[in-house]
Amino acid sequence: xxxxxxxxxxxxxxxxxxxxxxxxxxxxxxxxxxxxxxxxxxxxxxxxxxxxxxxxxxxxxxxxxxxxxxx
Length: 71
Hints:
- It is a single chain.
- The protein is mostly beta strands.
- It is built from no helices and four strands.
- The protein has strands spanning 5-11, 20-25, 40-48, 61-67.
- The protein has a four-stranded antiparallel sheet with strand order 2-1-3-4, with no helix packed on it.
- A hairpin with an 8-residue loop joins strand 1 and strand 2 (20-25).
- The radius of gyration is 13 Å and the shape is globular.
- The relative contact order is 0.32.
């Protein structure tokens, strides 16, 4: 995994702007944890905001997720 990626959660499918529901950063092993999201669909924007990326930076990306059980 990649440390230091920023994951931004928007409510709905294919949403790229609007109210941010949650923002988290990936840990040193690339994992991340998101608590407190209600049941439903979300769009996650993944950004490489690292300032010390020795091997280059990744392009921003989006994915849709479904929360089936509130944390």
